[in-house]
């Protein structure tokens, strides 16, 4: 199983576990910051296919980070659709993430970087890091072929971070 598919499987499992947990006492769960960073219309524009916020999309990755998932209908000539995951890191966790991917990162246009190991486009901005992955549910195209799209989405999300 490819690393990116394993990563998506882990994100999906964590999302399922979070969705099964009861909301905090006194109300509903708060929408994570990461779900406010990208507009569905931007994802649709960049990927050329209809998108929606995934059901139970928001999940807390850890203290200092949260993620939001978006389902993308089949597009770019691909069957099966895609999953876009936006992760927002802040504070010490942002510093740690940036230090982890910096040695292997490939610089992309517009200030984004690509981590070939995690297949995520990152933008670092004022002590915050925004990461975006685009993974098709089929194996084609591989996430590495979607660097420009992931970078465009990461830059758009970082502007709102």
Helicity range of the residues? 25-40%
- Biggest sheet layout: 8 strands, antiparallel
Classify the secondary structure makeup into a structural class. alpha+beta
* Poorly predicted sequence stretches spanning 5 or more consecutive residues: 1-28
Q: Secondary-structure element sequence?
A: HHEEEEHEEEEH
Q: Beta-strand percentage? A: 25-35%
Number of domains: 1
Shape: globular
| Rg of Cα set | 15 Å
Tally of separate helices: 4
**Distance separating the two termini:** 33 Å
Overall mean confidence score, pLDDT: 76
Number of strands: 8
Blueprint (SSEs and pairs):
Elements: H1 3-20, H2 40-47, E1 51-53, E2 59-62, E3 65-72, E4 82-90, H3 91-101, E5 106-107, E6 113-115, E7 120-125, E8 128-136, H4 147-160
Antiparallel strand pairs: 1-3, 2-3, 3-4, 4-8, 5-6, 6-7, 7-8
Helix pairs in contact: 2-4
Folded structure, characterized:
- This protein is α+β, with helices and mostly antiparallel strands and 161 residues long.
- It contains four helices and eight strands.
- Strands 1, 2, 3, 4, 5, 6, 7 and 8 form an eight-stranded antiparallel β-sheet that branches.
- Strand 2 and strand 3 form a beta hairpin.
- Helix 2 packs antiparallel against helix 4.
- The longest helix has 18 residues.
- It is globular.
- It starts with a helix and ends with a helix.
Short key terms for the protein model shown above:
single chain; 8 strands; alpha+beta
In short, what is this structure?
With 161 residues, the chain is α+β, with helices and mostly antiparallel strands. 32% of the residues lie in helices and 27% in strands. α2 packs antiparallel against α4.
